[in-house]
Design brief:
alpha+beta, OB fold (Dihydrolipoamide Acetyltransferase, E2P), five-stranded antiparallel beta sheet, 3 helices, 10 strands, about 20% helix
Length: about 140
């Protein structure tokens, strides 16, 4: 993709124009970033509803037909199913097991296990397991 920058003298003259063949997840992410308007999803904690910015989510887990959103310090329950969240979240998110979606921007390190699985340490210190069937895709996505 060719990128052109043009300098302007005032803030009012600033604008971004994207010429695209199709709107992909990467394009949606770029638009969100440019607009400083990150997507949010609703989630509940202690009977109170919160709007969670998707860039603050570390991972999403499904347990007993309920979905939980994990941020750096909190856990929230959401009404969305995992497949719905997978569609809502951008290209920074990766399905790493049947019941888990992780934000790859929150991965600090990965470690291979003898059984073909991987462990990923997140920036908040938590460790998640990457199932064998998803390891190849994660390596490709991380450039390993």
């Amino acid at each position: 993709m060719k990128v052109e920058l043009e300098y302007v003298t005032t803030e009012d003259d600033e604008k971004a124009t994207l010429k695209v063949r199709e709107v992909t997840e990467n394009i949606k992410s770029a638009v969100d970033m440019l607009e400083n308007n990150c997507r949010s999803l609703s989630a509940v904690k202690d009977n109170e509803t919160y709007m969670i910015r998707t860039d603050k989510i570390y991972y999403v887990e499904s347990v007993d037909k309920r979905s939980y959103v994990y941020t750096k310090e909190n856990c929230y329950e959401t009404r969305y199913r995992l497949y719905e969240l997978e569609e809502m979240l951008n290209a920074d998110y990766f399905r790493c097991s049947k019941a888990l979606i992780v934000n790859i921007r929150k991965i600090k390190s990965v470690h291979s296990e003898l059984n073909g699985r991987m462990n990923a340490e997140l920036l908040n210190g938590e460790t998640i397991v990457i199932s064998r069937s998803y390891v190849k895709d994660l390596k490709r996505k991380l450039g390993l």
